[in-house]
Amino acid sequence: MMTGAPKFVTMRLGKDSVADIKRIDACEGGIQDPPIFLSVTCKQVPRELKAGTFVLLWLGSDNSKGIKTAWKQGVRAVARIEEVKLGEKHNDDSVTIVSIGYAFPMSMDKIDLLEANPEAYVHFSDLPLVGLSEYANQTIRKVEYGKRSDMGALLVACGAAINSSLKDLFVVYPDLRKLVEDSVFPQARRLSISASIGEPHNLIYFGAPGTGKSHSLNVLAGKYFDKAHTRRVTFHPDYSYASFVGCYKPAMRWPKQKDDESLSENMGRPYVSYEFVPGPLVKSYVEAMTHPDENFLLIVEEINRANPAATFGDVFQLLDRDGDGESEYDVNVPVDLGEHLWKEFCHTSGRADEVPGLYSREENAACRVNTMRLPSNLYIWATMNSADQGVFPMDTAFKRRWEFRYMGIDEGEGKYAGKVVRIGSRREPVEWNALRHAINGLLKGKARVNEDKLLGPFFLKESTLDDDEGFDEAFKSKVLLYLYEDAAKMKRPKVFRHPDFTYSEICAEYDSSADGVFALDTPVERAAEGEDADGDAETGAEA
Predict the structure, then answer these.
(1) Distance CA 371, CA 361 (A)
(2) Three-state SS sequence of 306-327
């Protein structure tokens, strides 16, 4: 029996709410932005009802004679109570104000829900309105949680009836996720997990060096994924399909000890066994398929430092995801991978029959899996900087299968606000952000360097900025070298005071010259004189 404020109530709109019924019936399904507000006046409102309670909204009849209504009666929306004005006594009129944040595309009656998922219906067959023998006319009724009063199971049936994962429902009401996760119906937890993230399944963070791509991705990953469910890999020029997906490799093995042999008697010679060794993609795939109620994340750092098309290979086709996040198409898998998947799904986990759409009698007889597709609980997120030297191009067909999130050149710079460093021979203080802005102003102004070559706020670590003695060496070995060898390599006359100097000569000039190493009449000089690139006063020193 529920105690305290109810988490869920049902609300039946009737003949006193015809205008509201018609307004709701006319709305499109999905997120309601702005929300639809209702003010419902009725008697016998539960005294413990409070703002924040979830509401399952039912469009009822405008008459008491069983005459057919102009709208279909049934479950139509999920709402939340905003305010309750209770009457003095139980039977006095009370006013309840609700906001509808999510509407189903159609009304669903008891038969619709039963036909959509009979197994789920068993678990919510005692609920008000949708239950087997529920005919009470009370407008608002609290859900008394019991064996057959499972709201999670009801939402599963609603999703099945409209052929939707109900992701938008969890976007509007993220607090609903916990309630559904606590459901006793197994499919309800799966519904919550697959719908609660609200982030792309294939996502790439990109931007200039030092903009915090990896950090931002890690923060996002920590918000939605357990560390044990997160796997990370870094691409490099020698990284291949065999490393990412898997391949046969030699492994050293020793003879197995027999029951009647001692350990010393069984110290035979080791032998080499060739076995399929799965890569990070296959490992994450197996975990996601064998644990459908949990989310898994594969992070690919520097995705374009290897050849993406070659590294993903035929898995590239699986990146096409449908609205629920599952691969739209199957791909046939090689025999070696198919045999490995069979062992993982059948022998190791014992859950072959619970992995939908993966096996047939013929495949079982062959002891291998023939096809695979990425499940909706497997996410692949990555970072990239397209301006780095030695990176591989990413073709349009590959790019369009990803969502891209750009990290702005000054995004997150507030973390270093007021951070002062001392540079060059004069050792005068300058704010790191002011110095970085000045250098970027020179690069994109006079040198016309693309934005993805500029310096992000985290180009140097915070510990480096705090190291008064070691900052100069870091500035020379990281900033000056990056400008000399990469960002300004073809624009040295526009950036450096002496473009014919070697890198070592520029470093020596940095250590000794009072005039700085950069070209004259640039934002850097203005910063050194106490102004930024736009002429505003700044604390500064020459570099």
Answers:
(1) 14
(2) CCHHHHHHHHHHHHCECCCCCE
Q: Does pTM surpass 0.70?
A: no
Q: Are strands 246-253 and 30-42 parallel, antiparallel or unpaired?
A: unpaired
| Sheet bearing 8-13, strands edge to edge | 30-42, 94-108, 74-85, 54-59, 8-13, 140-142
Identify residue 119 by its one-letter amino acid code.
E
Provide the phi-psi class of 448: left if phi over 0, else alpha when psi is between -120 and 50, else beta. left
Q: How far apart are CA 447 and CA 361, in angstroms?
A: 66
**Residue 79 confidence (pLDDT):** 96
Helix (H, G, I), strand (E, B) or coil at 202: strand
pLDDT for 134: 66
Nearest Cα to Cα of residue 205 among 456, 436, 444: 456
Instruction: With CA atoms as reference, report the closest residue to 453 among 527, 385, 375, 542.
Output: 385
| Count of other CB atoms within 10 angstroms of residue 92 | 11
Q: Quote the pLDDT of residue 257.
A: 60
Q: Are the beta carbons of 11 and 57 closer than 8 angstroms?
A: yes
Q: Which helix (H) or strand (E) holds 337?
A: helix 335-342
Rg (CA), the chain: 32
